[in-house]
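Quick illustration, no need to memorize.
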Amino acid sequence: MHSPLWRLIPPIQVSGSMQMAIDLWLLEQYVSGNHPPVLRFYTWDPVAISLGYHQRRWPQRWEDLRWQGMPIELVRRPTGGRAVLHDGDLTYMVVMSDPDAGEGTGAKRSPVPGYEAICEFLIAGWRSLGVELQYGRAGRGYRQTANCFATATGADLVLPSGDKFIGSAQLRRNGAVLQQGSMQLNPSPELFSEVFGTEGRVHSGLPVLSLPLEVLRERAIASLVESASRCFGVQLIPQPLSEGEWEKINCLGNQNLVCGEDS
């Protein structure tokens, strides 16, 4: 019996607003029945701060930040959560059938089981690289902080030290789910401090996380692709975006995904 086929889109490095347009377009295509489930990994160029879909407060100075002579892009994600600095990280996204579909509705429905059903491939992939992860627990001040990595929820993955390593968020639509997440590999302490007013934590004692950033990204992607295939029981078929797909995504990317003043 053949495994279900998923699409694996090779890594793409473009602006944050374009990355969000790609993810949203892929979700829409899956919901419409025009596209299989998809997994992809990507990086942000230029450096960006992404805001959660429902996040309505952030420091006004973020709108004028620059790094290495370039403006820092401020962009809104289609998924929830708090602000994430995309510098020295690796972002993943999954579009698939909602693991929790039909498991309750409204305020009584907990999203945590759905996160766990997807995050298992992250735990397995990083374990093969010598990094043990476990689910976090929400701190009291989660909604009072703008920084996603200041505290962890049950949807996030933390190191044995308690430091948050992967933050994830979802958008659920018509029986489908888009899950996005950032893996904090080697963020700049100076930039992290400039954005959030506190230093980013250094992951010590984990040899793989001391590798050069590009090498670490390559190893992480290879390990996570393999673990996703095993955990989801699927065959991942590499397929870059076509010219026709890029044209449709560009149209979506021209919509208002970049943040202006807080309102």
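The chain has five helices and 13 strands.
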